[in-house]
Amino acid sequence: MFYPIKYVIMRKMKKWMFAAILICGSSVFTACTSNEDNSATNEDKNCADLVVYGKIFTSEGNQIVEAFAVKDGKYVYVGDKAGAEAYIGNGKTEVVDYTGKGLVMSGCGNGHAHYMLGYALKTIGTMIGLDVNTEKLLKEILPAAVQKAKNEGATSIFGQGWRLQSLDPLPTREDLDAICSDIPIYLLDEECHKALGNTILLKKAGIIKEDGTAGKTTLRGGEIVVDGNGMPTGLMKEQAQTYLRSFLDNDNLYTLDRALSNLVEIDKYMASVGYTMYHGGWGNYFVNTNYYQACQQMDKEGKLHFVVGLPYEIESWMDMDEALGRAVDAKKFASKRVMPRWIKLLFDGGVEAGTAIVDPLYPDGHQGIANWTEAEVTELTRKANAQGLTIHIHVMGNKGVSQVVNAFVNGGQDEMRNTLVHVRNVNDEDYKRMAEHNIYVTSGVTWHHMPTGAIEILKTMVPAGQEDKSYPFKSYFDNNIPVSIHSDYPALSGSPDDPFGIMEIAVTGVLWSENGTPWWPEELATREQALTALTINCAKQMFIENERGSIKTGKYADFLLLNQDVLSCPVMEIHLTKPTATYFEGKKVFSM
Question: Is the distance from CB of 175 to CB of 162 less than 8 angstroms?
Answer without folding.
Answer: no
